[in-house]
Design a protein that fits this description.
Structural class: mainly alpha
Number of helices: 17
Largest sheet: none
Strand content: under 5%
Order of helices and strands: HHHHHHHHHHHHHHHHH
Shape: elongated
Number of strands: 0
């Protein structure tokens, strides 16, 4: 971020032409921009606010960006028409965007059916094939479409291992924790809720099915935010118009997830684990929404902390069985005395709340919605 002191030294009002000095400092941005809006978002990303624009005798960053755009050779003499909206994808491209997010949920549902109708070694093979198929489908969804990474973010996100841990805990964690507190487990999971190590399938099925509403709501948010960027006349104006849009996006996804969980729980005859599923879904959705816009640090940190906390809680219960180490398990046993789901609900809920605050501070900025820079 640009130091305001550096701006003052090169562009204070006493300078003969402060806008020219600013243009020289950000020449690459101004020459590459296809319209003033892209310059405005770039200036904001470098720390220039509406208050800074007042030093250049402009009411806001958008007005300053218009002058910078006009001063670039080839822009001001023959104004470049605004880029036409990208035509809707047709054929295979549009089909991929609409139908690919449905694939993880469909494969997960097929895997659940296979687990319910097989036994012994066949069930083990069905579980392995199902996990592999869902993994590949999720990987495809996270590489293409609204949930795909942008800009310089690598296609293979560093948060993948944390995401799989949290999903695995939703499937096996509560059963393992409950068995460990009661002195077990006495055997390995057998793929059913009645085993020594019970599985909770409904939350995982609902989460995979929710990939479709997650992708569709993310696309809706991105498209409408970019439209607001074109109609706004200031950074604060843009942020104020995007906040309710972001709130609606998150609420719409959580409502869809709750409906899918209700249906999954009813069909599988499992408890309605609303709190832990919604908090986990919110955490994963917000993390992916930030990552898709190029912000990877906060999602990585919060997912790591959440996964580490859950792992430490499980380890403390087993460590409490050692001689003289019973106090290690006391906090987790007290927390889960009412319900084993309290641990994932609190850990995921706290992390999701922090990410939600960060999302409102980050994705309401104009610079979060500019197209990624082309490779050089």
């Amino acid at each position: 971020m640009t130091d305001p002191g550096e701006l003052d030294r090169g562009t204070r009002p006493g300078t003969a032409d402060p806008v020219k000095a600013l243009l020289h400092r950000h020449r690459d941005l101004c020459e590459r921009a296809v319209d003033p809006l892209e310059i405005a978002a770039g200036l904001e990303a470098h720390g220039i606010t509406d208050r800074t624009a007042a030093r250049f005798r402009h009411r806001d960053v958008f007005s300053l960006a218009e002058e910078l755009y006009a001063r670039v050779p080839g822009h001001g003499e023959t104004p470049r028409p605004a880029p036409e909206p990208t035509p809707p994808r047709r054929g295979a491209g549009r089909t991929v965007r609409l139908l690919l997010p449905l694939l993880p949920g469909a494969l997960c549902a097929a895997s659940v059916i296979a687990l319910r109708h097989t036994g012994g070694r066949t069930r083990l093979y069905a579980a392995a094939v199902g996990v592999l198929a869902v993994t590949l489908a999720l990987r495809a969804v996270l590489r293409r479409g609204p949930l795909g990474t942008r800009g310089s973010v690598p296609p293979r996100s560093a948060t993948a291992s944390r995401t799989w841990w949290l999903t695995g805990y939703a499937l096996l964690g509560d059963g393992l924790l409950g068995a460990a507190i009661s002195g077990g487990p006495d055997g390995l999971p057998n793929g059913t809720p009645q085993g020594h190590w019970p599985l909770t399938v409904a939350p995982v099925l609902a989460l995979t099915l929710s990939c479709a509403p997650a992708a569709w709501t993310a696309h809706l948010f991105t498209a409408r935010a970019r439209r607001r960027l074109g109609s706004s006349r200031g950074l604060e104006d843009f942020a104020a118009s995007v906040r309710p849009l972001l709130s609606g996006t998150v609420a719409l996804y959580l409502a869809a997830l709750a409906a899918l969980l209700a249906a999954s729980s009813a069909l599988l005859e499992e408890p309605f684990a609303l709190a832990e599923t919604l908090t986990l879904g919110a955490l994963l959705f917000l993390a992916r929404l930030l990552t898709a816009h190029g912000f990877t640090h906060a999602p990585k940190v919060m997912l790591t902390i959440t996964a580490a906390t859950q792992a430490a809680a499980l380890a403390s219960v087993f460590a409490g069985r050692l001689p003289g180490c019973a106090p290690l398990a006391a906090p987790v046993e007290t927390l889960t005395a009412w319900d084993a789901a309290a641990l994932p609900a609190l850990t995921c809920g706290g992390a999701a709340l922090i990410l939600l605050i960060h999302t409102f501070r980050t994705l309401t900025r104009a610079s979060a919605h500019t197209p990624p820079e082309p490779p050089r």
